Structure formats: structure tokens, C-alpha cells
Structure to design on (369 residues):
């Protein structure tokens, strides 16, 4: 350690540990790099050769940024950090595919109280593996030590990604038509939203994350850290299937805001959908947590996905083929509702969300057992 590094370490910032973390993660990050990535790991800026975009008639760039919220508190509590990276990639990249865009590259940011190289490497390895699975180059990142601001075992993660879609292939509300079919795709679990409520419920019952749950077949921490499903690669393959060209009109990633609001924001104004609760059975983790908290499943629809991770609004004529293609790609898919544009009273509907003046959605009926 140099004298300067030693002086800096006295303030709580360990640059040597940071360098070791980079070495531990380097091979995983490099596996996400194709010939488009220039300069490798460690540069001031990640470089991506955009000459492939010359083949587009009108390339539109899509960008997204996000984190994973308070789910990181559970990873920290049970000292398990190898899945939170997938959560981050899913929250960022699966927003990009919603407009039909192919992700190109991503960067990450980790703020921590103290750099523990093995822990940072676990996080970034998870990010890199998920980037590799979604065809996204991890071109750069930053790990920042914030002693005195964050506890020694505290950290937070965030990321940003850029993708591209041909302008005339962009998915958008204007493509949605009366009679379109709404297909739901299964979630792997809670994904990365609603964890403040989860943590509150468990704290109220004095349940620790290391406590075993017979209902979930694992400790609470392990069950809750089930990583967010990755939809990008299978969705892109279905979107690129020439036999299904134009069949998918919009996609909706079910994240913060819940089931109805996220679907409403991708529908055109005046369009409405009633989602049939009977079309699926919420996963055991949702039922168990709802019971612990004394809540009905219906009251949690704006906090948790309850088993739906993504919606596709598709042409009615091609809905069976799209559903079959998604299922063949490993995405459990089912019919959840039908789009209508007739006039009606929207009392009880969610209308738009996140500043979008979109369509209207409500859930009806009772969940399947």
C-alpha cells in the first residue's frame, strides 16, 4: 500500500480493497463483452462501438435506470449477495424491452460503507451473469466507499442501461386495438418491489430472516431473495419471430405501483381492461405474507405483483400463437383479459400511472385456489 493510500485508509476508504474487488469481478464482466465493447475493464468511460446502428433506418435509443429498493436489506441481513445483481439487471433491462428495444449496454453503481472485495464481487458477478443472459454488455461501473454515511455492512445498488429499437417496430399504446388479448407472464416471486411492506410484516411478527418457514420450504431470507425473473431475451426472440410479426402491440413490466396501474400506463386513453383474478393463483409467498400481515390479497395488488411479472397486449387473432411461443421460451403465460374501447363508467378502475394519461384497468373476481 502506498503512503497516500495508507493516509486515505485512515479516513475509512480502502482503495486497495477496491482494486481487489475489481480483480475478483473482472472475468465475469468480460464475459458480457462482444466485439462492440472497446477498452475492457477499468477505463474512465465504457466504450461501445455503435456502428451496428448504421444498419437501422431510424434507430431509437431507449434508456432506463433503477435500483432494487429495500430488498438489499434482506441480502445484508443473511449475508447473501449473489442474487441481488440479477434483480438490478431485471429492473433496468426489462423496462427497456417493454418498448421492443434490444439492450446494448449497462453500467452499475454500488455505494457501501466499507468495501469487502468478496461481497462486491458477488454482487457484480450476479449483475454480469444477468447481463450475459439478456445480451447486455456490462461496460462499466463504480464502487464507492462512504464511511460515516453508511454502516460497514450497508450498501445500495443502482444501474442504467441503453437499448435500441427500429422506429417502425417500437411497441406503443397507439397499436392497441379493441378486442386485443391481454396475456400475463408469471413472476418468480416478489421481484424487487414492495419489500418495505414485507419487512414491516415480518418485524411486526418478530420473524427473523434466518427463521425457517414451513409454508415456504426455506428460511424467510432465502425465499424472499428469489431473484427477479429475466424476460428480455425470450421476449426479443418472440418479437423477432417472422410468423408473429406485429402480433405484440405493447408490453408492461409489473413493478412499483402494482398490477392494474402498470398495465394502465401502456394502454391508450379510452381503452380499458378487466383482469380476471381467477386466471391465476398467487404464489405461496404472497399468500403466506398476506396471512401474516392480516391482509386480503386484493388489498395488496398495488404493492406486490402477486405472481404476474409482465403483460403482453396482443392481436386477438394471433394470441394463441403468441402464448404458445412465450410458453416455449420458458415464460408461463395465460389469458388474463380483453381490451375494450366502448364507453363505460370507470369507477373502481386504475387510470394511467407515473404521470401517463393512459387507459383504465381493474381486477375482478376471486383468485384461483
Amino acid at each position: 500500500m502506498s503512503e497516500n493510500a495508507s493516509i486515505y485508509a485512515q479516513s475509512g476508504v480502502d482503495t486497495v480493497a477496491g482494486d481487489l474487488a475489481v480483480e475478483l469481478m473482472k472475468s465475469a464482466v468480460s464475459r458480457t463483452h462482444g466485439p462492440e465493447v472497446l477498452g475492457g475493464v477499468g477505463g474512465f468511460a465504457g466504450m461501445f462501438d455503435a456502428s451496428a446502428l448504421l444498419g437501422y433506418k431510424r434507430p431509437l435509443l431507449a434508456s432506463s435506470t433503477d435500483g432494487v429498493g429495500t430488498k438489499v436489506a434482506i441480502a445484508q441481513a443473511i449475508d447473501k449477495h449473489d442474487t441481488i445483481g440479477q434483480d438490478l439487471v431485471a429492473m433496468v433491462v426489462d423496462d427497456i424491452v417493454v418498448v421492443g428495444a434490444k439492450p446494448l449496454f449497462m453500467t452499475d453503481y454500488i455505494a457501501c460503507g466499507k468495501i469487502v472485495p468478496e461481497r462486491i464481487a458477488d454482487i457484480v458477478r450476479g449483475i454480469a451473469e444477468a447481463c450475459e443472459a439478456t445480451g447486455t454488455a456490462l461496460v462499466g461501473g463504480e464502487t464507492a466507499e462512504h464511511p460515516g454515511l453508511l454502516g460497514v455492512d450497508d450498501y445500495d445498488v443502482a444501474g442504467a442501461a441503453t437499448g435500441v429499437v427500429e422506429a417502425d417496430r417500437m411497441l406503443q399504446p397507439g397499436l392497441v386495438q379493441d378486442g386485443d388479448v391481454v396475456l400475463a407472464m408469471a413472476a418468480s416471486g416478489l421481484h424487487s418491489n414492495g419489500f418495505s411492506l414485507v419487512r414491516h410484516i415480518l418485524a411486526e411478527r418478530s420473524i427473523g430472516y434466518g427463521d425457517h418457514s414451513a409454508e415456504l420450504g426455506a428460511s424467510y431470507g432465502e425465499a424472499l431473495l428469489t431473484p427477479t425473473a429475466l424476460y428480455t431475451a425470450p421476449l426479443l426472440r418472440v418479437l423477432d419471430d417472422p410468423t408473429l410479426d406485429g402480433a405484440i402491440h405493447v408490453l408492461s413490466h409489473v413493478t412499483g405501483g402494482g398490477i392494474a396501474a402498470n398495465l394502465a400506463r401502456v394502454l391508450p386513453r379510452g381503452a380499458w381492461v378487466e383482469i380476471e383474478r381467477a386466471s391465476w393463483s398467487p404464489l405461496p409467498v404472497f399468500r403466506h405474507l398476506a396471512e401474516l400481515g392480516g391482509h386480503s390479497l386484493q388489498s395488496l395488488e398495488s404493492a406486490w405483483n402477486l405472481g404476474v411479472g409482465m403483460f403482453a397486449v396482443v392481436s386477438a387473432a394471433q394470441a394463441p400463437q403468441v402464448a404458445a411461443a412465450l410458453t416455449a421460451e420458458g415464460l408461463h403465460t395465460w389469458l388474463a383479459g380483453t381490451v375494450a374501447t366502448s364507453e363505460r363508467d370507470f369507477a373502481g378502475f386504475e387510470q394511467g400511472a407515473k404521470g401517463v394519461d393512459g387507459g383504465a384497468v381493474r381486477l375482478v373476481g376471486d383468485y384461483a385456489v
About this structure: The mean pLDDT is 92. The longest strand covers residues 155-166.
